[in-house]
Amino acid sequence: MTLSVIKDLYLTTFIFLMYANIKKLVFTALMIFQSVGELDENLISVVSLSDEDIEVKDVEKLKEFGIDYLVYSAVLSDDPQVRHLCRVYIRKIAKSFGVFPASIHALYKAFGTNEVSGFTVPAMNVRTLTYDVAREVFKKEIAHQTSAFIFEISRSEMKYTAQTQDEVAVCVLAAAIKEGYSGPVFLQGDHFQFDVKKFKEYPQGQIDEIELSVKDSLAAGFYNIDIDASTLVDLSLPTKDEQQKDNFEMTSLLTKFIRSMQPAGTTVAIGGEIGHIGDTNSDVEDFEAFMRGYLEELDSNNLDIISKVSVQTGTTHGGVPNADGTLASVDVDFNVLKSIGEVARSKYGLGGPVQHGASTLPNELFDKFPEAGTVEIHLATGFQNIIYDTMPESLREKLYSYCREHFESEKEEGWTDEQFVYKTRKKAFGPHKKDMWLLSEDDKNTIRKALSEEFEILFQKLNIVGTAHTVRKYIGENTALIND
């Protein structure tokens, strides 16, 4: 090979690589439309868009790049009209593909009658990269037929991750479209929680605030709502009934409100909570006192009651970091889950107990939750930790620096820097949402691969592999999809 040929070959390779990088940059830029005209122009060969109807012209192109354009613009466009239209279009496309938000209430009722048993439904809080995380979950669903899972976000998470429920919903629906999933999607409002200090000062203000959140949830397609009035439990009072009084009264009041607001044909799955996570462990007497008062409050209303109850077993949200940043071991009392679950199902027809604060537990413990009759388990920080561990170091340090600069006042006496960063780093996601979403595909692939491996372990141990048939048996397309 002559020198001139070698030079030409190197030049050709260089030009090709330059073109590939430019193309990649252009693709990223095009995914965020800044005007309605831009949106229509770039998707004209993929979908026919209008407020009244939508027609998918090319399914392959939609899955290859069209849905990416729509979801990125729905989240990151500077134009509010573009964001709104993209969300409307994603919902319309999802409906046409048989993807719909649904309530898991009927499945949990089947747990309550012992028609269904043997698995635990993971409820996954997605704090960042929602579209990418959801894609990995749907890949597992298609590979293993694992339809029994929930995507959720709490009221506090919405604030520090800069995500509304509507945004989470369209990201999840878009991920289902991208991966070719068809069927029910369970979206859950987690920890609709009372602030005990504000409640004592002005109870109605807290009630109004949570009722407004309920309305937003239902409008977004979140047909699963967890009421958390466990913060109002007062263990200093002499009897269990007195301790649980504010809890069961507020849970009852919100149950009535949710039932009055839920869409026709849909029974929203409602959860209650009897033990504040990170506090004293729950027992059967706590549960009985709560249910006794709760049912008395609802007695004359003939309403569907809660389908599950969260209990405290010894865990803490996010785990407890040691001085070096590693996590302290946790002693989970599985007898709490087993004993309360037996009473919940046999006496009240509930699906069973719910475990919070579990994602940082050792993986070898997760198969114990189905064995103990746990109907649902909430997972959040473990996924966050994986994302932080696998993101580019430069971005991780940027987010850590943000925490040190903005949350110094939250550093408790005696905390090391590792403990401080671990406890506050979740709050860096919102201000850096765009940085996260615009990571390179290579960087995202590293994160997605690690998440996929964790989902594989969890879904196997929670025994939800092959649950699609069971889910479809109880969950039909009877849910009105919100298109506005």
Description:
This protein is of the alpha/beta class and 484 residues long. The protein has two domains: 96 residues, no CATH class; 327 residues, Alpha-Beta Barrel (TIM Barrel). The strands form two sheets. An eight-stranded parallel barrel has the order 4-5-6-7-8-9-10-11, surrounded by seven helices. A two-stranded antiparallel ribbon has the order 1-2. Strand 4, helix 6 and strand 5 form a beta-alpha-beta unit. Helix 6 packs across helix 8, helix 6 crosses helix 19 and helix 11 crosses helix 12. The longest helix has 28 residues. The radius of gyration is 24 Å and the shape is globular. The protein starts with a helix and ends in a 10-residue tail after the last helix. The C terminus is likely disordered.
User: What is the CA-atom radius of gyration, in angstroms?
Assistant: 24 Å
Q: Largest sheet, described in full?
A: 8 strands, parallel, barrel
CATH T-level fold name of the largest domain: TIM Barrel
Number of helices: 20
- Give the mean pLDDT: 89
Estimate the helix proportion, in percent. 40-55%
The top-level CATH class of the largest domain is Alpha Beta
Low-confidence parts = 5-29, 478-484
In whole angstroms, the N-to-C terminal distance is 64 Å
Shape: globular
Number of domains: 2
CATH superfamily of the largest domain: Aldolase class I
Strand content: 5-15%
Strand order of the largest sheet: 4-5-6-7-8-9-10-11
CATH architecture of the largest domain: Alpha-Beta Barrel
Total DSSP E strands: 11
What class, by secondary structure content?
alpha/beta
Name some characteristics of this structure.
484 residues, disordered C terminus, single chain, 2 domains, eight-stranded parallel beta barrel, 20 helices, TIM Barrel, alpha/beta
